[in-house]
Design brief:
The complex is a heterodimer of chains A (about 425) and B (about 325). By secondary structure, chain A is an alpha/beta fold. Chain A has 16 helices and twelve strands. In chain A, strands 2-1-3-11-4 form a five-stranded mixed β-sheet, with helices on one face. In chain A, β1, α2 and β2 form a beta-alpha-beta unit. With about 325 residues, chain B is mostly helical. Chain B has two domains: about 50 residues; about 230 residues, MetI-like (MetI-like fold, Orthogonal Bundle). Helix content of chain B is about 75%, strand content about 0%. Chain B has 13 helices and no strands. The chains are: A alpha/beta (about 425), B mainly alpha (about 325).
């Protein structure tokens, strides 16, 4: 009798498990399907995404398990890639081609493909011509500054065409009692931002003399990186960074610039949105990134931001593409891009980003370059930039030389 | 429930003894023996079956990852690619030369030994104090044990608001006295000391509870005998309490030591996982996910495993020798 009961219980468990599996397979019409959706974005942008996804569920009946784990997203995705078990739909945080292309289904045959904005298309196109994501917005990034602080110091942003002039402006700002640069070094990644913002001006942007080909073919010049690191060391020495540059966090960077306690931020336009969460009245602007030499001109960074792709092995691929096309609707792209403070990634859609659009329009003729680490450094170098930059901030002996050598060695190892 | 082994083993031995009964009875007892032997085997098999779930779980979640970790430590895997290649002992050679590993190793020793020392000294002091009857004793015990209930990550973030430079509680207090603010976590050694203290503050309650249990298990007659012999309170503590507490000390030291050597959450919350305050655990995390060097991170993990095993075994061996039988 006992055996009979146990057998019955076991059979029931097996059947219920089988039933669970069956329920979550794509049934063709999309009903009774639960998709998994993961994103790296948080805050306003995540809220906008989630609202669009809820509207999708209401319209189609397809449920979506939405997850925005924040800081741990990248680690989580690496673990999922290792297990080859990814979410049905996910955002690629700038890596749709270099890191995720092996795991994503191409979107070239999707209705929204022809609407992808011309500026972002080359950035998200693989060598074979495949595009793997829906670019909801696009990153046009320069230096963020506090207008009031610069006015008080008598600094005209349009005159800051080289790092030498930028350094003079930092000194003028410091003389007014304001911290010129606020670094949230505890979070590590803000230190890497410096490398991504300054690196291109020494390695990439100068058409007359650059190292684009050398980097692409596996040669990293440590002497050039010494100039990048050396400038940071000079600024540390001059007291241009906040006292707690190693122990403050990103949130304090946003708060400092919003409250007029710092002048510049090496961040994209979402930094303006984050700063205004602290002080909605903050007068903030965006300017091109200065050049390293007088013969070169300032530039902007253009890159992938909120871009969404479908896992190529998803058992719910039909439903996943339905979601992707739903997100590609003008009103959804407009809402999410507005929340991120960036231009929309699709033609014919204008995001509501207020004064940020003024700056994007103002500098529309400025040359744009892709993110330095994504385009010219092998994957895994970002953390090396953060770690070596941290040593320079801490004023360790020979930190600049060591940073350059470490960058070179890691570049060689990871290439 | 059947209490099986010893009684039935005795019966089986008796049945097999030379002073066995005559042939007829022997044949009957032989049949019994076979039945008993079969019963014994079946019982053993069913008892062993109870181990299976634990063995299976241990194999899947401990043994397999360990073997896999050893394997990966000989590769150049980046942590997510479907392919990698073997690189022999290169990862182990690299960890011997890597200054970040050296710093993390020293920090790990400080976190492990420092926390263990402080937690045990303070835990014993609290236990001795709170073993006495006085008003508010229960409240005091609760207060000291309370931080154990908080997740270490939360504890770290709470303490960050004390030690941060801008608007940190400590600097606000210093500011009230006209003292310039200090960037408490900026210098490696000071930051390591602060992390050790925070870890101690959080887990001193564990040591206290273990020592309280140990103190309450010491028979009162030893103290009575010592008092009659004229032993002072210090000599009673030295020659009665401490020796009798060695089993509790062993438990508390081992728990604190292993916890301290594996410290991770508090460091991440307070210092963000930078190299100057890194423990071997945070270094493994950063190397695996940040630097995308999973093979190298595995090698550090194996080294850490061997180190903790050696330290724990040495501590266990030393303390076991000190234990006295009541």
């Amino acid at each position: 009798m006992k055996k009979l009961v146990l057998g019955g219980v076991a059979a029931a468990m097996v059947l219920s498990l089988t039933a669970c599996g069956a329920t979550n397979k794509d049934s063709g019409d999309g009903k009774d399907v639960t998709l998994t959706f993961s994103t790296n974005v948080v805050g306003e942008q995540a809220t906008a995404l989630e609202q669009a996804i809820k509207a999708f569920t209401t319209e189609t009946g397809i449920k979506v398990d939405f997850s925005a784990p924040g800081e741990s997203y990248e680690d989580l995705m690496k673990t999922k890639m290792a297990a080859n078990e990814l979410p049905d739909v996910f955002t690629t945080h700038g890596w749709s081609v270099a890191r995720y292309s092996d795991y994503l289904a191409p979107v070239n045959d999707q209705p929204f493909f022809s609407k992808i904005a011309d500026q972002i298309k080359p950035v998200i196109t693989a060598e074979n011509g495949d595009v793997y994501v829906l670019p909801i917005d696009q990153d046009i990034a320069g230096l963020v500054y506090n207008i009031d602080v610069l006015e008080s110091a008598g600094v005209d942003v349009d005159s800051l065409t080289t790092w030498a002039k930028f350094g003079e402006a930092l000194a003028a700002i410091k003389a007014t009692g304001v911290t010129p640069l606020h670094m949230g070094g505890k979070d590590s990644w803000p230190i890497g931002q410096y490398g991504d913002w300054v690196g291109p001006s020494y390695f990439i942007t100068d058409d007359a003399s650059n190292q684009r080909e050398a980097l692409k073919s596996g040669t990293f010049d440590e002497a050039t990186w010494q100039r990048v690191g050396g400038m940071m060391a000079d600024w540390v020495q001059a007291g241009f960074f906040n006292e707690d540059a190693l122990t403050a966090d990103y949130a304090s960077d946003a708060a400092a610039i919003a409250e007029g306690k710092s002048a510049f931020g090496f961040y994209g336009n979402s930094f303006i949105v984050d700063a205004r969460a602290t002080n909605p009245d903050a007068k903030l602007g965006m300017m091109p990134i200065p050049a390293a030499s007088a013969t070169d001109a300032p530039s902007l960074i253009a890159g992938e931001r909120i871009a969404v792709g479908v896992w190529k092995d998803s058992p719910r691929k039909d439903a996943a593409f339905k979601l992707l096309n739903f997100l590609a609707k003008d009103e959804n792209v407009q809402a999410i891009a507005s929340a991120s403070g960036n231009p929309a990634g699709l033609k014919g859609v204008t995001s509501d980003i207020g004064d940020i659009q003024t700056y994007i329009d103002k500098y529309s003729a400025v040359r744009t370059f892709p993110y330095f680490d994504r385009e010219y450094l092998p994957s895994g170098m970002w953390d090396v930039m953060c770690a070596t930059g941290s040593d320079i901030l801490a004023q360790k002996p020979d930190a600049v030389q060591q940073a350059a050598l470490t960058m070179q060695q890691n570049f060689k190892d990871k290439f | 429930m059947e209490t099986y082994p010893e009684a039935k083993k005795g019966e089986a031995a008796q049945a097999a003894s030379p002073a066995s009964p005559p042939a007829g009875r022997a044949a009957r007892s032989g049949g019994k023996r076979r039945r008993r032997s079969r019963g014994l085997g079946a019982a053993r098999a069913s008892i062993n079956a109870f181990y299976l779930p634990a063995v299976a779980l241990f194999s899947v979640f401990v043994v397999y990852p360990l073997i896999r970790g050893v394997w990966l430590s000989f590769t150049n895997w980046n942590g997510y690619s479907q392919t990698y290649r073997m690189n022999g002992l290169a990862n182990y050679q690299r960890l011997i030369e890597d200054p970040n590993v050296h710093t993390a190793f020293i920090n790990t020793i400080v976190y492990g030994l420092g926390s263990t020392l402080l937690q045990n000294v303070l835990g014993l002091a609290f236990a001795l104090l709170l073993n006495n009857r006085f008003r508010g004793r229960t409240a005091a015990r609760t207060l000291i044990y309370l931080p154990v209930m908080i997740a270490p990550l939360i504890m770290g973030y709470v303490m960050y608001f004390f030690v941060r430079y801008n608007h940190g509680a400590f600097n606000d207090i210093l500011g009230a006295f006209g003292v310039a603010p200090i960037d408490w976590m900026a210098e490696g050694p000071r930051a390591v000391a602060i992390i050790t203290l925070v870890n101690t503050l959080q887990f001193v309650g564990v040591a206290m509870v273990i020592y309280l249990a140990g103190l309450q298990s010491i028979p009162a007659m030893y103290y009575e005998a010592a008092s009659l012999d004229g032993a002072s309170p210090w000599r009673q503590f030295r020659h009665v309490t401490l020796p009798m507490l060695v089993p509790a000390i062993t438990s508390a030291v081992m728990i604190n030591l292993i916890g301290g050597l594996k410290l991770f959450d508090v460091i991440m919350a307070l210092a963000g996982g930078g190299y100057s305050t890194a423990s071997l655990s945070t270094l493994i995390n950063r190397t695996y996910f940040g630097s995308e060097a999973a093979g190298y991170a595995s090698a550090i993990g194996i080294a850490m495993f061997l180190f903790i095993m050696a330290v724990s075994a040495a501590a266990q061996r030393y303390l076991s020798r000190k234990e006295v039988a009541i």
